[in-house]
Amino acid sequence: MSMSSKLTLAASFIVSGAIIGYVHLKQTTDREKLHEGVVRDVERQQRRKMENTYVLQKQIDLTKQLKQLQQQSQEGDVNTGQ
Predict the structure, then answer these.
(1) Which three-class secondary structure string do you get for 54-69?
(2) How far out from the chain centre does Cα 64 lie?
(3) How far is the CA of 41 from the CAs of 35, 44, 46, 69, in angstroms?
(4) What's 43's DSSP letter?
(5) Which tens digit of pLDDT belongs to each residue from 23-33?
(6) What separation in angstroms does the CA of 35 have from each of 5, 9, 28, 31, 70?
(7) Which segment of the chain is annotated as a signal peptide (predicted)?
(8) Rg of the chain on CA atoms, in Å
(9) Burial of residue 29, with CB atoms counted within 10 A of its CB: 0-12 exposed, 13-18 middle, 19 or more buried
(10) pTM for this one?
(11) Considering all CA atoms of the chain, what is the largest pairwise distance in Å, rounded to the nearest integer?
């Protein structure tokens, strides 16, 4: 085998190995990015759930306050004879 054919064969092995290595590295990084996206989505859902729970509790408190005000208003109407 001539020297140029040996160099060509070696170069093709090196290039093929580099391409295969790059593809595996790219797949690994893509998989990690996808997993990070899932983790962020779960965190976002938990944060929204906590926010919704907070808003719901606030609404419950406001409803209680409104009922108390209505009762006080009705009691005031009864006491004043209206």
Answers:
(1) HHHHHHHHHHHHHHHH
(2) 34
(3) 10, 5, 9, 42
(4) H
(5) 999 999 999 99
(6) 45, 39, 11, 6, 52
(7) none
(8) 35
(9) exposed
(10) 0.56
(11) 118
